[in-house]
């Protein structure tokens, strides 16, 4: 086989239309073999002799797309000093753009031997069994794809409604999707799924991990699987099991086709990415890639014990964020997904770990510096899960200005208010208005707050109102896994019931939390299926349940359809009214001389809230005025925005409460535009209220009143000199 010197850049396997260049970084390697596999699994080894700045490279003019390959790295195996090279282990290319096969439960994957006395982790007990038959293979891909006129939707943050979804969970049972496509990228791009998302009104889909991940063998032993996918092994490769047509590069083409179709529907694609750890686990884990290539360059090790990993993720290892090679890998991966796969943004799992150059979380760490100056990554959506499991890891509100964050305090506050916790009004007001207490001081906007009530991790929205105790027995851990403090309320009965009053309340509570979410400033995120009452039967940790427990059930009953219609109505209301999705924080003051404030708060009597009302420990009611004529930000053409104004009435009390419409200065006539109690008429003549009029608001419900702009007030004239 012809073997030319090749180039050290780009890293990975790069097909140029004729042959393929291979480049692998390893500072500790003494020798590197490139291993090629045919369809029968026969292996051909090619000696890589060229090195440039610790990059081993070669060009093979005969290698075409679809070729499977891996590496064997010869070098020190000295765990006490952090080195774990073992040429008997076939290694995945860290820059592989596609990966074929699966990892099996084979002892050959491990670099140590095990005895009756326990595990021996030293050079004397090196496991030299060949792992090639038990592991995955990297694949050379064809980079060429007809994108046509594809362009990113490029929605502003405040225009987003994010839909968190799982490739399989969303599509596995949809009756209009052909069975052979279900659970794949092709299914996500199917007209039935795209049409559903479009009708729902979402403008971005946030996909749970689609980087190539490993199906943990300990889960397979229990008849389970890694459903969520937070166990990455290939940061540039789309997960092969989500491809309908094969895993020899077809997954790349199918993913691109899915993105192109979603873009045509004006829906952005955001990826949930896991750059904080890999699937190789702790020192007892398998040798699949990074560990055998250059362990010390890729992983954080315990300073005083280099045989062990410093873990802030709860997975056994953490990537070494102060290593230039780790930073290069992450940035190259991010750029690849934007420039080659056309995705629109990223949600970073356990993002606080990315800020740990040493032991503390540092918002000025090298990773954030690099992102800030990168001309590609700095221009896409960046969403942080602003915590990890290490000391000082809870960093809500602590990320730099380019970043948005999953607002965990929003989730907790909304849940607490609707389950009747005391003293929640001041906190609720902050969350409704964009969490300025968390974000304004850093020069950020309400869009920095990604608001959510539920996500993949925890109860679904329906389970949040049905269960107070988790039901995770099916996970095989004796119900020990998953969060025990869920801030949930079962409405008086634990689990499903035939009691019509309880079920009516549960339906209203789901609407209450969806309404709160979609009427709040910031960016709303809906977990897939919450809009149709998806349940996991009380399992709040579905990470290993790739079955109907976690899949959406598309067989909707009347209650599901009503909840879906309500959600669509609220999303449409949000899209239609800029005052519900401002790009700047409220000030509480008028924007025009003699005008009304941009936001005002009232008690049920229609009087402006005073400190006593705010501080009342058991207060459960709140009315907020949102002034559509006090929006200070212009539209995209620089024109002043004038919108309808709204009164949003929150009754968290267990009984109906009479609210009085505020004085006529805020508006003479108001119409009902939404209510979480389906018995209340909206959008008809009976739904008109006048200033000073009383209305009974149903126990535990939200009522939205709206009015058109008052007589327009001319904007102040600025003299140009």
TrEMBL record:
Q: Which CDD domains match?
A: AmyAc_Glg_debranch, E_set_GDE_Isoamylase_N
Q: Where is the composition biased (Basic and acidic residues)?
A: 472-486
For the keyword ATP-binding, the answer is no
Span-the-membrane segments of this chain are: none
SMART domains associated with the record: Aamy
**InterPro entries given for it?**
GH, GH13_cat_dom, GlgX_Isoamylase_N_E_set, Glyco_hydro_13_N, Glyco_hydro_b, Glycogen_debranch_GlgX, Ig-like_fold, Ig_E-set
UniProt KW keywords: Glycosidase, Hydrolase
Locate the coiled-coil region(s) and give their ranges. none
Which residues does the annotated region (Disordered) include? 472-501
* Family designation: Belongs to the glycosyl hydrolase 13 family.
Name assigned to this protein: Glycogen operon protein
Organism, scientific name: Flavimobilis soli
* Organismal lineage: Bacteria, Bacillati, Actinomycetota, Actinomycetes, Micrococcales
